[in-house]
Amino acid sequence: MSIDWPYPAIVAHRGGGKLAPENTLAAIDAGARYGHHMIEFDAKLALDGEIFLLHDDTLERTTNGWGIAGDLPWEQLKQVDAGAWFSPMFRHERLPLLAQVAERCARYGMAANIEIKPTTGTETQTGRAVALAAQVLWSAHPLPPLLSSFSPEALAAAQEAAPQLPRGLLLEEWDDAWPALTSRLGCVSLHIDHQALTAARVAALKAAGLRILVYTVNRPERARELLAWGVDCICTDRIDVIGPDFAAGA
Ligand code: G3P
Ligand code: MG
Which residues form the GP-PDE domain (predicted)? Predict the structure, then answer.
């Protein structure tokens, strides 16, 4: 850890990886149970501007609701079951508000990577709203939330709304435009599918002064290799196998 990059090396994907329904308070509880110091989760906007956690644009895969989540007001979204799809043990688990997640992170002393996940067509609005809310909700936390997004528009809006919050550009694939994009958006980090990386690419990113977060790494041997190349953060679903102290023994 360093002052300019104070984040831990292991990040629990979607709160609790594959051990609890993704992007719920139960997921964060699972991350905490395994001792994790940082979680990643996906934040989007409800029709009335409330910010809540959900990965997909639509409700079907991870809830008992249907349709485009961002087309619904919070009053309706708060009623869907976000846990039963995963296991009957998690029946009645709700979609969480960003405010509840901030409170849970504070309780557990966990750092946060807030992935801004706009419903298609709401990139600027979502980037702005999430950054403004995060700035307030995390104001008393020891570490600022690391904002990230696949959407350059969302990151530009976050930069304008809360310039002091650190930003990371998310890429699914290698893109030679990364130097221009990260520089224009004032990003401190590049977040990328680990399969797109090579040792040479890691070296190029590091030489440019960027930190690197990789997703979603579930095999310990691969996590070890990436850390040896100089990757800063491993985002994992296997929060039980790639534990909080994994990097120390890697
Ligand atoms: O932020 C890392 C990772 O979560 C990006 O992919 O689809 O799991 O949100 P996804
Ligand atoms: Mg994500």
Answer: 8-246
Rounded to 5°, angle at Cα 14 from 128 and 39: 80
Cα of 93 to ligand 1 centre, how many Å?
21
**CATH code where residue 17 lies:** 3.20.20.190
Which value does ipTM take for this structure? 0.99
C-alpha–C-alpha distance, residues 53 and 45, integer Å: 9
User: Burial, 200: exposed, middle or buried (Cβ in 10 Å; 0-12, 13-18, 19+)?
Assistant: exposed
Q: Which residues lie with the beta carbon below 6 Å from any ligand 1 atom? A: 13, 40, 42, 55, 115, 148, 170, 191, 215, 235
CA 154–ligand 2 middle distance (angstroms): 14
Query: pLDDT tens digit string along 129-188?
Result: 999 999 999 999 999 999 999 999 999 999 999 999 999 999 999 999 999 999 999 999
Q: Which residues are catalytic?
A: 13, 55
Residue 3 lies in a domain: no
Q: How many domains does the chain have?
A: 1
* Mean pLDDT (whole number) for 5-26: 97
Residue 10 host element (H or E): strand 10-12
Ligand 1 centre distance from Cα of residue 207 (Å): 25
* Closest by CA position to 156, among listed 127, 118, 176: 127
Long-range contacts of 223-229 (CB under 8 A, 24+ apart): 223/250, 224/250, 226/194, 226/197, 226/202, 227/9, 229/197, 229/199, 229/202, 229/203
Q: What domain range is 69 assigned to?
A: 10-249
pLDDT value, residue 4: 79
Residue nearest to atom 3 of ligand 1 (CA): 215
